[in-house]
Specification:
Blueprint lengths: L2 E5 L7 H9 L2 E4 L13 E6 L2 E6 L25 H11 L5 H12 L6 H16 L4 E4 L9 H11 L4 E4 L4 H6 L9 E4 L21 H7 L1
Helix pairs in contact: 2-3
Amino acid sequence: MKTCVIMQPTYLPWLGYFDLINTADVFVFLDHVQFSKQSWQQRNKIRDRKGEQLLVVPIKKGVLKEYFIKDVLIDNNKIPLIKHLKTINNNYAKAKNFGEIFTELEEIYSEKFDNLVDLNIQLILYGCKKMGIEKEMIRSSELELVGSKVDGLISICKSVGANRYHSPLGSKDYIEENNLFEENSIQLSYQEYNHPEYKQITYDNFIGHLAFIDYLFNR
């Protein structure tokens, strides 16, 4: 059984994203579909003293609905990404693993990224390395595909030779509206993930579903 997981490359994704990667034999970054402004593709949340703080990657004006994720450009002149690093520094300086993780993040954020997808994938690969996850990974834009939505998912599975598709639970509604996996001899399963709780610096309450770096700083 060869399992495929397909996800859009989001910015600083939550731990559940890495759980999905870990279940895959081959993980596909879905980068050939339309970009959605103000989505998790360009922003995510970290912990601060008040609760949560949103980090948003600015994109260049003129990005239209028909732009593919792979084509979206970062607007480095509007809000330099180094400001995200400063915000992370301000909020995690007292975290248990601050020295190690912040130094490694500095190396990534000091690079010049033009495309949003390249930044996101680099951060995701970093998260995989820190969590000991090693999987075959490919971008959907590198494959010869047909169809969209469920048909597109099946096309990707066939292209990578997978006979099982493991899906995030949030996609269940639209998949079940047109579930073609069985007739294409592909087993379908959905993620079941229990978010772990851990001590977040010195805060009394726990907030889950934050960017994965919150876990790396505190684990």
